[in-house]
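Exercise 7.
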Amino acid sequence: MLTENEIERLRQAIIATIASPMIGSIEDYTWEAIFHYVKDITLSDPALGRSKLLYDAVDIQTATGWSLKSLQLKNFMATNTFSFVIQRADIIKKAEELGFPGLTEKSSPDELGAAIIQHWNDKIISSKSEQGVVNS
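Solution. The predicted structure, written as tokens, is:
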């Protein structure tokens, strides 16, 4: 939920972004920059490297973290469906570490699914801790 001030900041940021001939679309780092501006939180310098932590934006005042995604649609309709893929989870390579020794591509869907859930639970817990996030 955005405040009225954040809605106005979002409107201004989108107008400024679209007006720039250097920016082709609002996605990736452009979206991250807009979001940080809207929420009035510090944006890290991409030249200093990008992390593989879960949260792209963290408000240290409220300990809130967001994993930011953008969706590009040519025609927005209420009936559009979409899926986000936020990271590959190489559960086969990490099988032992995840507690699933012997896991292969031919393992049962239940076992593969359990390994994926374990992978994401571990990712969320470690990123929350490392990034100081209480509210995801």
